[in-house]
Amino acid sequence: DTGVSQDPRHKITKRGQNVTFRCDPISEHNRLYWYRQTLGQGPEFLTYFQNEAQLEKSRLLSDRFSAERPKGSFSTLEIQRTEQGDSAMYLCASSSQGLEPQHFGDGTRLSIL
Amino acid sequence: QQQVKQSPQSLIVQKGGISIINCAYENTAFDYFPWYQQFPGKGPALLIAIRPDVSEKKEGRFTISFNKSAKQFSLHIMDSQPGDSATYFCAAPRGGYQKVTFGTGTKLQVIP
Fold it and tell me: Does B47 touch chain A (CB under 8 A)?
């Protein structure tokens, strides 16, 4: 399967713990995006990578959030000192250059106890 | 601020009927207008997209109609089937890297 892959699919953790999610984009895609989706809402943009460079971060991405894409391939999203409000689906998407649409993975659902 | 407004929030349609979902946008800088379909527990999947220089695009049972002057676009699902039951999002990407703004979603239920 050559789609966008995310791991884990579900993560349950206690408030205050750190969590890390991984995204493997479609191999030839150099653009990678992270979105957050809460119940009943559309996905909201968090951050964007062009190859290994992080070019934009949303105001939604507080200091507790950090994302990396070290070699321009897979990406990780880390949340430190998790809070109840962090409970959401975290979606990764990738695309190629130009006006090509983004392809989404199936997300990581985070639940904070 | 909400730049893409979607309606209705939910929709129930009989099998074989036409499902219509509408979106209105404010920013004229959007480059094209895709619709995404999302099933529970899955990520959004691209359904169909239209560029602003085209007024209508049809792919199978799915049609996008675009009204540039009114800043509105809509999705029509002809001969709706129970398998179409999902949440549909209109979206608008813009900027050099195509940052996507999503609508609030329409939950469609097609009943037999």
Answer: no
Q: How far apart are CA B95 and CA B112, in angstroms?
A: 42
CB atoms within 10 A of CB A83: 12
> Can you tell me the distance from the alpha carbon of A14 to that of A23, in angstroms, rounded to the nearest whole number?
22
Tell me which chain B residues have a C-beta less than 8 angstroms from the C-beta of A100: 98
- For the cut 60, the answer to whether the pLDDT of residue B1 exceeds it is no
Strand partners of residue A47: A34, A57
Per the document, the length of chain B is 112
Q: Is B70 exposed, middle or buried (0-12, 13-18, 19+ CB in 10 A)?
A: exposed
Report pLDDT digits (tens) over A63-95.
999 999 998 899 999 999 999 999 999 999 999
